[in-house]
Amino acid sequence: MSADSRQVYRGMDIGTAKPTSDERARVPHHLIDVADPIERYDVFRYQRDARAALDAIAARGRAAVVVGGTGLYVRALLDGLDLASVPTDPVLRARIEADAQRDGADALHRRLRELDPEAATRVDPRNVRRVVRYVEAALLTGGLTASWRRDGAIASRRVGLAPPREILIGAIEARVRRMLDAGVLDETRALLARGVDASLPSLSGHGYVHWARHLSGALALEDATRLTVRDTRRYSRRQMTWFRRDRATVWIDPTVEDPLPATLSE
After folding, report:
1. Which of 117, 172, 240, 254 pairs with 165 at a CA distance of 20 to 30 A?
2. Looking at the domain that runs over 165-243, which CATH code has it been given?
3. Strands (E), the chain
4. Mean pLDDT value across residues 28-57
């Protein structure tokens, strides 16, 4: 089961590094290609869809492997976050959105750091929509993290992959180059031709915003590639910051022979 907030979107295969068609034919995959890129798929919908998928898998007598790096999605599913308990205020949100448009994404993220430093470490500053939501919740509750309640956590074994940083950086750079070879520019061009605006959450995934700027003539290809690598490297650091807070996660180095601890090699 994917826990990736961009693999949910159809037509975004290369830029999100989805499993190949052969891989998906060999093993059933869930929560991939469940939304159109013009939709706003969020953590509330993911939690509902993922729980339904887990129930269906369990009913078949199978075990699920949840894979992915969107920390909030993983936590919402496995820790059973009661997302409905986080209040909303449309008027306040509209005001925050106006402030973000006037002052910029960096200023909005600085505001979140002042209100809820822990939440600020979890979110990409470029993901303005999510930062707006975090600021809204922090203002309404005095801190987003403190406002979340748990409702029906799911028993699970949690494994995190932590290769040496230099190997991870090399893998990131190689993957971006492979995306180019596989046709990510054509994929981005097709999305734009369908009317998928670059401001939508679907295209805020790493790379697409830069590929779109390149296709518009605003950015050289090598610059778009460099920025995609840079953004992905930064995101990988935020991922580690998020997941390392979970004391239940067992960390392994996947680059060494037989890395699994004895308790996980049963």
Report:
1. 117
2. 1.10.287.890
3. 158-161, 249-252
4. 93
How far apart CA 216 and CA 21 sit, in angstroms, is 30
Looking at 3.90.850.10, 3.40.50.300, 1.10.20.140, 3.40.50.2000, the CATH number of the domain 87-147 comes to: 1.10.20.140
User: Per DSSP, what are the bridge partners of residue 226?
Assistant: none
| Alpha-carbon span 203 to 136, nearest angstrom | 23
DSSP secondary structure code for residue 2 in this structure: B
pLDDT beyond 60 at 147: no
Burial of residue 106 (CB within 10 Å: 0-12, 13-18, 19+) is: exposed
pLDDT attached to residue 266: 42
Distance, CA of 72 to CA of 118 (rounded, Å): 13
For position 35, what pLDDT does the model report?
95
**Tokens representing 168?**
């991870």
What pLDDT does 121 receive? 79
The DSSP letter of residue 194 is T
CA distance 31 to 53: 8
Of 130, 35, 124, 144, which Cα lies nearest the Cα of 81?
Answer: 144
Written as six digits, the tokens of 26 are 């060999």
Q: Give residue 69's identity as a one-letter amino acid code.
A: G
**CATH assignment of 21-84+151-161?**
3.40.50.300
Q: What is the spatial distance between Cα 42 and Cα 37, in angstroms, rounded to a whole number?
A: 12
Segment 241-260 shows an average pLDDT of: 86
- Show Cβ contacts of residue 166 under 8 Å, excluding neighbours closer than 6 positions: none
